[in-house]
Protein 1
Amino acid sequence: MPIKKWTENEIAPINFRQIILPRPAGRLDAGILLQINVPTEAKRLLIVDDSSVIREGLAKQLGHLPIDISLARDGQEALDMIAEGDFDLVITDVDMPRVTGIELCRRLKANRHTCHLPVVILSTLDDNEDIEQGFLVGAAAYLSKSEARQVITETIERVLRKASLKRNQIVLVVDDSPTIRAVIDRGLREAGFAVITAGNGRQALELMRRQRPAMILSDINMPEMDGLEFCRMIHADRLLADIPFVAMSTNRERPLMRRMLQCGADAYLTKPFNTDELVITIEKLLSDRLLLAIKEKERLESERSLMLASITSLGTALEARDPYTRGHSEAVARITTRLAAAMNMAAGDLETIQLGGMLHDIGKIGVTDHILLKPGKLTDSEYDAIKRHPSIGGEILRPVPSLAPILPIVIHHHERFDGRGYPDGLKGERIPLWARLTAIADTYHALTSDRPYRRGMAHDRAMEIVMEVRGTQLCPDCVDLFLAHPPHPPTP
Ligand SMILES: [Fe+2]
């Protein structure tokens, strides 16, 4: 059946249908979730009004919000200021000399550098025609000055929240009609989204190898790879399956709609639809998804904290068995974190190395008391039992996915740089860096601590021994870092 291709004029509001399905939480990817950050930087607001009383009154009213406020006397001054600096929101009067508020909004939306900037129109004119005109030029909200006092704060927060949701969100538009691609591209860019386009499913998959979109908007009837096949391919790929997928088609047959939904589509739009409605659908899907993602992230974090609290209690219980190692894990964590900080490591890496230090000997839980606490020399088989503690530690922590980054520290902190360590006899830089750093802190703290069979050494002597085993037992580069940032000598 030949497919009708819609022209730009035909895509006006005529018909709109959508089905939005809730997405099961299980499809969210934990790795992606943990990268979600709520933006906290101060927002920049530009107030445009030819009346100084209104400009300054509004600035005063909004003074309690965490935003930087600038003032412009008319649309032209606002355009000049926006060309000079970054703003997150514009609130503008309508009736002003030189450039009016409506013209300001139109020009901002027509410029690809500023089309994402939300504009709130604040006017004394509030009949339907004025409001319609405001939205036609792309305003995010239209308030009458009489109602502004009550709703302005709420409106600003809502518009900023929406804008930050859209920022850097890439929507992939897949359609074989250049006209439809261009219309949707323009509409979504004006609404603040970044857009990439492809002519069919195969091209879209190719594009997605380089850029991961936040949302896919795909036609169904296309050459080479149609929407059904494209949707199947996306949902068969574990890394892509969680991207919301909106199908678009002129075909209103229910079986086709059902097949798309069975393939994993989240929403179905019947063409023609207008871009305002499309934007609302996309915003709704993205905001549902973001909320779900934030909740899932919170759940993962609380699960991780609970798990960590339990494991740390186990570690404390372990140290309580042996008065000579009490405080050892904490001291190792302190020293390694200091070294990692000296390397300018990111906050996430610092947390990993600190936790690794705290839990590096957790596997000693699996070593019996009579071996672990034996004051005299160990037999070969007893020493073999002690040498199993890094692997036992790995087995204890492995079931907790969020602790995966610290496993290399726990498992390899007894490897030696010359390859004569355990459990795997790894050599040189094949030993994970965090494990090499932990080995130094472990050695130094063990030397300076009292043991049943000897007193703890003085700081200087322990430093000498660390230097003596530089390049044999311990990584030379890590020893150099340790010498450059020595720990505070233990208090007697
Ligand atoms: Fe150990």
Note: Strands lie at 43-48, 67-72, 89-92, 119-123, 141-144, 170-174, 194-198, 215-219, 245-249, 267-270.
Protein 2
Amino acid sequence: MDPITQLTEIFSHFPGIGPRQAKRFVFYLLGQNDSANKKIADLILELKKDIHSCVRCMRFFTDNKKGALCGICSDEGRDKTKLLVVAKDVDLDNIERSRSYEGLYFVLGGLVPVLDKNPEERIRQFELKREIERNQELKEIIVALSATVEGDNTADYLRQIFSPITAARGIKISVLGRGLSTGTELEYSDMDTIKNALKHRE
Ligand SMILES: [Zn+2]
């Protein structure tokens, strides 16, 4: 395969990118000079070097000390009674930018499709359980997943597997309000929508 076809193939696997957009990326790169393209290639190689997954919330963050906590988890000012569960890092960034939430987070790493046989392989449910057990101040788990069939199914699944712990400790499980319309991806929601959805959680 020639480089154009190979790169198109690679870009088409990026989230939300189809073959036509992938090809546009390739032609964009063809129009750049060598130093600009080298910079991109170098950054991709460096990307995972200093970036680690936080041992508590599992989000990616830049740090030299492996195993350390991210800036949010190590911030003493955050409200430890709330834990907001999102599917992806980009959702967390989006909610953080809306400045309407001051509690802790957990990044699930995916969603559970309906009738999936191995949900525990799709999401970080064991890490989430560990986090719920570790945080004895926890009063509310806010499930902030996309308003899609998969998002709803994942929320139901979480409720089901964690109900013994939450019932025993009196922890409330809430979901984002319907400010997010059906089919909306959290990732593409604007700040006001996120603020409203958080305010109207139930
Ligand atoms: Zn963290």
Note: The helical segments are 3-11, 19-30, 34-46, 89-97, 125-134, 149-169, 191-199.
